């Protein structure tokens, strides 16, 4: 049973406070922390921040920490850690608000993850296996990693409006090989950027992708194409984009020059223009997936683009891992893949439920990190246990990103002959 819960404030990969929790059972101590982002949309679960401007610029999380140490721990002590849904429900009941803003999603999620780790230990099975049990699944699959290699948007100080260009080693035979391909390509890309933009171009964004001072999709894609051609893995690597277009949508138009001080506002694109541009990009480059190609409220163009069936269309800001928005998108055929961010929804149980919705609709599922991360590698086990087929955890660079990819190496090693790499089935969750 759960005997003690102790939370504290730590710093995430951006140097901003987040919540860490130590949950104790008779089997030992289980630690988890909450990821974070400042892009949290109005539909996401809500982080509790202290708001005292004199302390960490208002970003302290001591209220959330105290909610765990007092209210949550009082409610959960004595519970069986294998009963994940009851633990999560107890916190939801205690919070009483739809978006978990009372206790804070940062408090609730950290405890939910710690309890899940404790549940696995209680059953003396690996965490990914416990997660598979909780979801009623029997298969375990190593996901295809989507490595961020070029960063833009709000994650980087260059003029690129779109947030990420990613590479997917779909043609690898094992996760281990996928990581090698990703890391080698990343190093080739560094050399390509060094030649064209000098050492400054090799600075990285929050997720570890390079942030050379480019301003267009094509400039970035050409760099990546060149790096891939230098690896000799051409046929094994596909490309994905996270456009995060909500960030540069103004009214009904898209400003791809939003970050170029001299050009902002001069090159507005309509939804139809964007569709034409995506069509061209998908035929010129091996792009297999586009995330948030349109604003989170622009369901119409997202649907028009999805219906062309050119590539996987992933809803992140569009869906915010929220079952109501996912149900609506399934009904209206708005997109065909879910980006799963745990702190958008708030508990392990609810994450499992929303993945089931996506899977029943034959969607792809991408397990995802946030820009503010910690060394917690829970999402690696989650991706394997829920067989999501894809994981996006940033570049093959920086400790908080590698924490997830390295954990996948360990899981693959542990599964031995039984390990299955999603590979060509990457978008079949
Ligand atoms: P975030 O998003 O910056 O809001 O964490 C990351 C992503 O969409 O990849
Ligand atoms: Zn996104």
UniProtKB/TrEMBL annotation:
Pathway listed for it is: Carbohydrate degradation; glycolysis; pyruvate from D-glyceraldehyde 3-phosphate: step 4/5
For this UniProt record, give its keywords in alphabetical order, as a comma-separated list: Glycolysis, Lyase, Magnesium, Metal-binding
Name of the top EC class for this enzyme: lyase
- Cofactor comment text: Mg(2+) is required for catalysis and for stabilizing the dimer.
InterPro entries under this entry? Enolase (IPR000941), Enolase-like_C_sf (IPR036849), Enolase-like_N (IPR029017), Enolase_C (IPR020810), Enolase_CS (IPR020809), Enolase_N (IPR020811)
Q: Where is the Enolase N-terminal domain?
A: 2-131
Q: So where does Mg(2+) get bound?
A: 242, 291, 316
Q: Which residues form a coiled coil?
A: none
Active site at which residues? 207, 341
Stretches assigned to the Enolase C-terminal TIM barrel domain: 139-429
SUPFAM superfamilies recorded: Enolase C-terminal domain-like, Enolase N-terminal domain-like
Query: Which cofactors must be present for this protein to function?
Result: Mg(2+)
GO cellular component term, pick one: phosphopyruvate hydratase complex
Q: What is its EC number?
A: 4.2.1.11
Q: Which GO terms describe its molecular function?
A: magnesium ion binding; phosphopyruvate hydratase activity
Gene3D superfamilies in the cross-refs: Enolase-like C-terminal domain (3.20.20.120), Enolase-like, N-terminal domain (3.30.390.10)
| Pfam families referenced in this protein's UniProt entry, alphabetically | Enolase_C, Enolase_N
A Gene Ontology biological process noted in the UniProt record is: glycolytic process
Q: Give the matching HAMAP family.
A: Enolase
Q: Which family does it belong to?
A: Belongs to the enolase family.
> What is the recorded name of this protein?
phosphopyruvate hydratase
Lineage of source species = Eukaryota, Viridiplantae, Streptophyta, Embryophyta, Tracheophyta
